[in-house]
């Protein structure tokens, strides 16, 4: 069996997609889960792009031990040096640098000749190798590049010291046969290609990311890049869980193994969906809610006679085990702590205590506390930050009637520590809350997207609200899970605002240090 | 350019997936849109499976003129004859019959020898051809069947009169190279294959449905089957919109055309998502909300210099045009009717008037009425049925406060025509409503799934609620779009209950006729 390295870019190519804004704690939590999931490399961010990215990459490089941690850098001296500062604390510092190689990108975006592009690529790889033992070089828009130009530039960057060469299908344009044949051609024509890792990176614009990635593996790729749930720019990157399961289920055909811990699939997928706020459609392969649901009579009849008639993947394989009733109103601190540990959470005593308080409050109102509820509760504690003073909702009340004017009242603590009570009306209950909160936060708020969904089954299930809004023209996404839809909506709104406050606070601190 | 026929099975393989229950009006509306979208064949249902399916297939066959309408039948005399009754009114009656051909299905599910299976297949195709000019025969689980057995049985069913042969990858197991090579093998070895249509039917369990379908086209398929948004059993069928766009964008490579009206893509996708309640994830290829969103600084810079640097598909191509403010409070009846016509709706005068009343009510509360709002409003009118007396919500009021006990009061008309007022409490606002409604409907209700999302942008956007529940152990899904989240939740709950009442009423009527 060949070993295929899995390179996860959920925190870089995934995080840069529309509507996603993860804070450092959330990124760390995802990185820890990716390490458990068994990915070879974690691309933790683009350190030179913002102080927040820099800090997250630095913390992840300092925390993760069993996966290599990398960051993205343009072919620019300052990007590479900033990345070194962020990544040098890692076990095996790794840099990912790139330049575009397609005629359209070189001409319009870079405004450089092919010769100049080769020169820049070589210089940046040489510089990167002064710092990093591992350097990956990517030919952006490779699938629309001239093959022989790719051979030339790769010959040079390998000579300059690149340890991995990546061939992205940046715009999701290739067919599986074309993409496979490009890997075959490069494998046969680039000097020294056998000494480096050869990597595939696919986008799903035409729905072909999974097939293209597998075609690359069939034709010489030894590393593949993608994201959890296939999030990313536009239609997203290839979904890593699809590749991992395909290599497992069809190992007869691909003769390759990924090293992925398949039992962690569902957990990893749920965590990324929860923290990014990106929903997974029910018919999504592997991790969709219906991926294992057999509905038609004919299928159900077959499944009863022999499950293999219609089931090639079992829920058990990916760790999708039935949610059991785990704890209730009378469960004590010890049982709660035990369960958290069993679920793989490593929280500080302080956070565990805070989670226990939240649990008791929930248990007073909700009959059965499921594993899903605990997951939400514990994750929320884990990713909580107290980097700055923010808005805190103390209470919300709403009067709603179809033929009345909906009215909301909110009591909240402001960042300056005062407790304010505000109220307002709206055309609906949630609009009344949003109008009230806009008074509180004292800025121009525009709601871009809003949704609420139940976390588990039952009428008393937790409701998770996700709100994408702009606050004084800056866009952010907030989320909250509470037992009430209206409370969750109010808290998600403030969460979106608070993220901007924390970010601004952080930016100010950094500028103060720089002076 | 080769012509590839598009066979849509949204209403059969799609509708049989978990949590979907479309009524006849909704199915008709989807069929009409599929006809506009330019699909060659619409599989409207499985007539022998239920009276509801029979009726829907019959009405669709009598309505649709520009697409062939078909229905599914097992290899059973009664299935085929029932299907004829449902389909005979169509312009070109077409039947789709099937039997399993893989060793595991023949042994465990059918408990038949391969020889018996051939015999049954031949008999059913012969019987079907007595009625139908067009008969498609499918080898269920073809990709796990013996190739030479497939050749043998296909030789026989073609001799028996089948006009299309379909090779489904029922469990989503094949790789693109395997699936393509199976098509090549059958094309070269089955007698008379050149006289019939050869069809592909792929499932997405490993994320390969799109690639497998395109591989079939590259290797001789002249028809491909799939669903809108890729809905269907488990991980679903291939998404037809991905195939149509891939054939268009890569016509240089595939040299094929589908006849699909690409500008109707977004509308078709939205309609199916709305009526089935199946969400589309933002990173879904072609029809996801972010499919054309460019977020990273590097991409945005490139797009400004030349859009082709990062964009291979334009939103315009698939009819995803920016929503403009179309109507407001002061718009009159004439402007409203005009707009409805422009949007392609063909409503009766009565339904147009009802839609106008709903529009005026909405315009009183909501500043800007967008095309998305109109789409929701008009579709809701179009698919409304008055087949039976049902519950009608007259008003709902809710008292909610974080530290109080949430209380809801509902006034509604029951199926017997009485107006009832009920109230109840709950741990949250929505739970209070659900508890109140459970008193009203007087049965055991369990909530399986619940979600609300905003239809368009802005704090006063319509909220669309979807509820999947069981009522006295029967499962159904209800939906409603209203300006208030609580109202939408209450109406969606009653909509789910009402669907069961309509269905039961229909069943009773049918039984009365049969006696």
UniProtKB/TrEMBL annotation, chains A, B:
GO cellular component: cytoplasm
A GO molecular-function descriptor: 2-isopropylmalate synthase activity
Oligomeric and partner information: Homodimer.
Encoding gene, per UniProt annotation: leuA
HAMAP family membership: LeuA_type1 (MF_01025)
Highest taxon above the source species: Bacteria
Protein source organism: Psychrobacillus glaciei
The UniProt record lists the keyword Transmembrane: no
GO biological process: L-leucine biosynthetic process
RNA-binding among keywords: no
Residue ranges annotated for the Pyruvate carboxyltransferase domain, each copy included: 4-266
Enzyme Commission number: 2.3.3.13
Name of the protein: 2-isopropylmalate synthase
Region (Regulatory domain): 392-515
Keywords: Acyltransferase, Amino-acid biosynthesis, Branched-chain amino acid biosynthesis, Cytoplasm, Leucine biosynthesis, Manganese, Metal-binding, Transferase
């Amino acid at each position: 069996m060949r070993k295929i390295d899995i390179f996860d870019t959920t925190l870089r190519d995934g995080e840069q997609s529309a509507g996603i804004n993860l804070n450092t704690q959330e990124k760390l939590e995802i990185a820890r889960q990716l390490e458990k999931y068994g990915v070879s490399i974690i691309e933790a961010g683009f350190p030179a792009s913002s102080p927040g990215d820099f800090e997250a990459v630095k913390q992840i490089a300092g925390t993760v031990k069993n996966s290599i941690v990398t960051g993205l850098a343009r072919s620019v001296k300052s990007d590479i040096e900033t990345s070194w500062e962020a990544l040098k604390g890692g076990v095996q510092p790794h840099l990912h640098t790139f330049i575009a190689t397609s005629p359209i990108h070189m001409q319009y975006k870079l405004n450089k000749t092919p010769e100049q592009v080769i020169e820049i690529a070589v210089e940046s790889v040489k510089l990167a190798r002064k710092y990093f033992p591992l350097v990956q070089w990517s030919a952006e828009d490779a699938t629309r590049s001239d093959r022989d130009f790719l051979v030339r530039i790769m010959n040079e960057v390998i000579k300059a010291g690149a340890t991995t060469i990546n061939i992205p299908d940046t715009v999701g344009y290739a067919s599986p046969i074309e993409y496979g044949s490009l890997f075959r051609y490069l494998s046969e024509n680039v000097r020294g290609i056998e000494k480096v890792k050869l990597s595939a990176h696919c986008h799903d614009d035409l729905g072909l990311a999974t097939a293209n990635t597998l075609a690359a593996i069939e034709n010489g790729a030894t590393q593949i890049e993608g994201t959890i749930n296939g999030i990313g720019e536009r239609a997203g990157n290839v979904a890593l869980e699809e590749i991992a399961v395909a290599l497992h289920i069809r190992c007869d055909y691909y003769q390759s193994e990924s090293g992925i811990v398949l039992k962690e699939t569902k957990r990893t997928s749920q965590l990324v969906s929860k923290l990014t706020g990106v929903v997974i459609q029910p018919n999504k392969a592997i991790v969709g809610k219906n991926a294992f649901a057999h509905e038609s009579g004919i299928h159900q009849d077959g499944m009863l006679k022999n499950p293999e008639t219609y089931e090639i993947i079992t829920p058990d394989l990916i760790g999708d085990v039935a949610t059991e009733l785990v704890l209730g109103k009378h469960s004590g601190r010890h049982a709660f702590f035990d369960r958290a540990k069993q679920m793989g959470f490593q929280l500080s005593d302080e956070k565990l205590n805070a989670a226990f308080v939240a649990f008791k409050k929930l248990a007073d109102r909700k009959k059965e506390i499921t594993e899903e509820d605990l997951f939400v509760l514990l994750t929320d504690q884990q990713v909580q930050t107290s980097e700055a003073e923010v808005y805190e909702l103390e209470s919300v009340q709403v009067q709603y009637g179809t033929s009345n004017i909906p009215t909301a009242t909110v009591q909240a603590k402001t960042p300056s520590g005062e407790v304010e009570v505000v109220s307002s009306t709206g055309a609906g209950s949630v609009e009344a809350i949003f109008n009230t909160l806009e008074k509180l936060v004292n800025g121009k708020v525009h709601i871009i997207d809003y949704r609420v969904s139940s976390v588990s089954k039952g009428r008393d299930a937790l409701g998770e609200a996700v709100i994408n809004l702009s606050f004084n023209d800056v866009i952010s996404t907030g989320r909250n899970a509470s037992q009430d839809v209206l409370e969750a909506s109010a808290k998600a709104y403030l969460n979106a605002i608070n993220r901007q406050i924390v970010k601004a606070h952080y930016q100010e601190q950094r500028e103060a240090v720089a002076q």
